[in-house]
């Protein structure tokens, strides 16, 4: 029985029926990348390129993921912020309309008071109670001295002239329709 030593110092048995040794065969501590048998060598330019260290690769991967996430989240975030602004504007509009409703409700409640209705009839329509006498103050030129109130059409001199009652009514209709008194050319 012949025993030959391998390069690492382990014995190799040449006989097929030999008993294996109690000690396992030693493996090489590290394998170095190198040319394999039967494989041609790589060009010198490709072999001179070094791979980046692991922490740099991880950093580049993290940056790429953050960029992709940013591209995905940006439109969603933009839509969310736009909707929040629209909601805020709608709330402000609702609040303003509720204030307007409250003011109109207060005015409507005032019209339920008979005293307020009477005052408005006297001021706006120049109504008088039965038995009272209404006076219109004229200045020395003969024109109406009282100012017209908002929402009331001005009274022209033609209406005050001696004309039948239906002429006065028709003249007031024309004035109310146009908003300005008619002028007649001589």
TrEMBL record:
Residues 1-28, 35-47 have a biased composition (Low complexity). Pfam families: DivIC. The keyword Transmembrane applies. InterPro entries: FtsL/DivIC (IPR007060). Keywords: Cell cycle, Cell division, Coiled coil, Membrane, Transmembrane, Transmembrane helix. GO terms for biological process: cell division. The chain crosses the membrane at residues 59-81. Residues 1-47 are annotated as: Disordered. The keyword DNA damage does not apply. Residues 80-107 form a coiled coil. This is Cell division protein FtsB. It comes from Ornithinimicrobium cerasi.
